[in-house]
UniProtKB/TrEMBL annotation:
<dbReference type="Pfam" id="PF05901">
    <property type="entry name" value="Excalibur"/>
</dbReference>
<keyword id="KW-0732">Signal</keyword>
<feature type="domain" description="Excalibur calcium-binding">
    <location>
        <begin position="102"/>
        <end position="138"/>
    </location>
</feature>
<protein>
    <submittedName>
        <fullName>Ligand-binding protein SH3</fullName>
    </submittedName>
</protein>
<dbReference type="InterPro" id="IPR003646">
    <property type="entry name" value="SH3-like_bac-type"/>
</dbReference>
<dbReference type="InterPro" id="IPR008613">
    <property type="entry name" value="Excalibur_Ca-bd_domain"/>
</dbReference>
<feature type="signal peptide">
    <location>
        <begin position="1"/>
        <end position="24"/>
    </location>
</feature>
<dbReference type="Pfam" id="PF08239">
    <property type="entry name" value="SH3_3"/>
</dbReference>
């Protein structure tokens, strides 16, 4: 690689590093939660984090957040995180669009043809998920 291309690569990596640092925020876990290697509940569990564990959140997407906890890093379901108010806003779905679909109970979700509901999807909430497996109104 010649010097001109090397300089461009260094500039690009510098921009990515700065933009990544700008989106990091602090959060705590709301209960004991699995830290997973990749997005999704079928991914390998790297560690089990305790309730009230302080995390650094890099970004959130599809109901999952990429986090760092001590020497571990991976993904945690966003429903198990409480974002700290002092941090910057994350690249995530606005809460208004998340709450646009609400079911009072599983009967209402079934009547609307939306059951089962999966963690991270519109309409899902922990109160509808009796066994905590990420699948509500089974």
């Amino acid at each position: 690689m010649n010097f001109k291309n090397w300089g461009f690569s260094a500039l690009l990596w510098g921009i990515l590093a700065v933009s990544g640092a700008a989106t990091a925020a602090q959060a705590v876990t709301t209960s004991k939660v699995n830290l997973r290697q990749y997005l999704g509940s079928v991914s390998r569990v790297i560690a089990v984090l305790p309730a009230n564990a302080a995390l650094t959140v890099q970004f959130c997407t599809g109901g999952w957040c990429k986090v760092t906890y001590g020497r571990f890093y991976g993904y945690v379901a966003q429903t198990y995180l409480r974002m700290m108010p002092s941090g910057p806003r994350l690249n995530s779905v606005p809460s208004a669009s998340r709450s646009a679909l609400y079911f009072a109970n599983c009967g209402a979700a079934r009547a609307a043809g939306k059951a089962p509901l999966f963690r991270g999807s519109p309409g899902y909430r922990a109160a509808l998920d009796r066994d905590g497996d990420g699948r509500a109104c089974e």
